[in-house]
Recover the amino acids of this structure.
């Protein structure tokens, strides 16, 4: 039987594809520190579970395709507080930021259309664009330049008659980049000059470790109707399993098209939306505490990696990942070897091989992405394990 070509070309997730090796290592009794995935271990605020318990409806019915007003109002209030004025109609609730990204790509791309993305990028972008039959046009960024964007002229050279959108993750997964106001203004100029939409994936907005203020693309007034923000409670409130995110945009045409996709899937999960609405009442002290914790974890992992001979990386300013270049030719083989053949005191680590974070063939082969969503002591052990593994790796 032959299925759709797009399904065959859909890339496997580099974050999850080595999990069978991880499971096999666990079954041998080896402890594996899971640095491959961005699963926060911080407790989800209790308000979420209390809202679920308080539900006393007798029928778990369908809800609005746009999402529950109770949650939408909380999101509008949250955005107004961060100086991005919204109305109810500017928000559509989705099954995680993932569904929001998927719909955005389906709306943006006809077959063969192009989306410009700084690479390395979050690998699901490639899957969503492939399923929309679009193509990625990468802006290659490097650790040496702090993963910052090249000059505006360089980016403008990538524009063709098929270019439809620019997609950025800010703060960035996997690089930890936080784009400056100037960089975002340059993207705004390019978008205006070429009639493009900008998809701003800002699911890590609260995870910024710099003292200077964070700029959202939603803060740039002159592109108010050219920006679609992808958001989620997964990281903000450590609620990945709730699967609640949203699309935010002032572009009425985009939102009316997005609503048709939302209608076709019925509605987002009801109870989880009630839980999510309660999460938006979480005191700001929770966010501050989590931010401080992650900043300390970042320092531990970054300082640890810097001390390993041959490892090259840049201190991330946001999110909770480090993209590191290792002194190996093939990082995927190295990670598999760490899971299959290596252990230090019956412990090893998993990491995501870098190649799947790039669209340019051959890039990222020596790189891995590591998440620091783990306890500090575990991160210290993980660094020790990596250093030892690199020193004895036969590959
Ligand atoms: C950059 C980025 N965007 C979007 C998502 C999707 O998040 P979710 O679907 O859990 O809301 C993730 C998840 O890791 C991510 O790293």
């Amino acid at each position: 039987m032959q299925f759709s070509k797009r399904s065959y070309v859909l890339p496997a997730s580099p974050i999850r594809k080595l999990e069978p090796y991880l499971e096999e290592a666990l079954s041998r009794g080896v402890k594996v520190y899971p640095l491959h995935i961005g699963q926060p271990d911080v407790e989800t605020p209790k308000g979420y579970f209390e809202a679920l318990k308080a539900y006393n409806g007798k029928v778990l019915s369908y809800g609005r395709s746009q999402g529950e007003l109770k949650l939408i109002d909380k999101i509008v209030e949250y955005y107004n507080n961060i100086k991005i004025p919204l109305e109810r109609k500017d928000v559509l609730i989705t099954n995680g930021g993932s569904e929001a990204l998927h719909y955005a790509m389906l709306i943006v791309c006809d077959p063969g259309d192009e989306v410009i993305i700084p690479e390395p990028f979050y690998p699901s972008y490639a899957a969503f664009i492939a399923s929309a039959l679009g193509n990625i046009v990468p802006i290659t960024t490097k650790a040496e330049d702090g993963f910052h964007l090249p000059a505006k002229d360089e980016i403008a050279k990538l524009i063709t008659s098929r270019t439809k959108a620019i997609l950025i993750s800010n703060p960035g997964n996997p690089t930890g980049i936080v784009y400056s106001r100037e960089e975002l203004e340059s993207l705004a100029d390019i978008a205006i000059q070429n009639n493009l939409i900008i998809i701003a994936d800002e699911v890590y907005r609260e995870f910024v470790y710099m003292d200077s203020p964070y700029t959202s693309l939603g803060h740039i007034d002159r592109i108010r109707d050219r920006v679609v923000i992808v958001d989620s409670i997964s990281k903000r409130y450590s609620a990945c399993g709730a699967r609640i995110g949203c699309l935010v945009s002032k572009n009425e045409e985009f939102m009316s098209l997005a609503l048709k996709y939302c209608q076709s899937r019925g509605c987002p999960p009801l109870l989880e939306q009630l839980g999510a609405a309660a999460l938006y009442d979480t005191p700001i002290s929770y966010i501050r505490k989590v931010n401080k914790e992650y900043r300390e974890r970042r320092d531990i992992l970054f300082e640890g990696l810097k001390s390993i001979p041959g490892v090259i990386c840049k201190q991330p300013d946001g999110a909770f990942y480090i993209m590191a270049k290792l002194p190996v030719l093939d990082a995927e083989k190295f990670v598999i070897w760490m899971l299959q053949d290596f252990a230090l005191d019956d412990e090893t680590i998993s990491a995501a091989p870098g190649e799947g974070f790039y669209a340019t063939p051959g890039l990222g082969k020596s790189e891995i992405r590591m998440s620091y969503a783990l306890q500090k002591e575990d991160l210290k052990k993980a660094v020790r394990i990596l250093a030892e593994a690199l020193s004895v790796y036969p590959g």
Summary: The chain has two domains: 5-43+285-392, 46-279. The mean pLDDT is 96. The pocket of pyridoxal-5'-phosphate is lined by residues 38, 96-98, 122, 169, 173, 201, 203, 232, 234, 240, 245 (CB under 6 Å).
